[in-house]
Amino acid sequence: MKTVNAALARNEVWWRWTAAVGCARLPPAMAPLASVFAGREVSGSYAFGALLAGTYALCESLGAPWRGRALDRCPPAVRGVRMRRALLVSGASLAGIAAAVWTHQHPWVLVLLTALAAISTSGVPGGYRALLTELVEPSQMLPALSWDATLLEVEWLIGPVLVTAALASGQPAVAYLVMACWALSGALLTAIVPTGGVRPEKPPAGLAPLGGEVPAARPSTAAVSARRAVEPTKPVLKPEHGAWRHPAGWPSYLTSGALGTAEGGFITALPALLLALQASAASAGLFAALLALASMIGGVGLSLLQARLGAEPGPLADWALLLMCALLLPAVLAPSVYWLVLPVLAGGLFIAPVNALRSKALEQALPVSLRGEGFSIQYGANGIGTALGSGLIAALVMHSIDLALVVVLVIPALISAGSLLIGARARTAAR
Question: Is there a contact between 70 and 413 (Cβ–Cβ < 8 Å)?
Answer without folding.
Answer: no
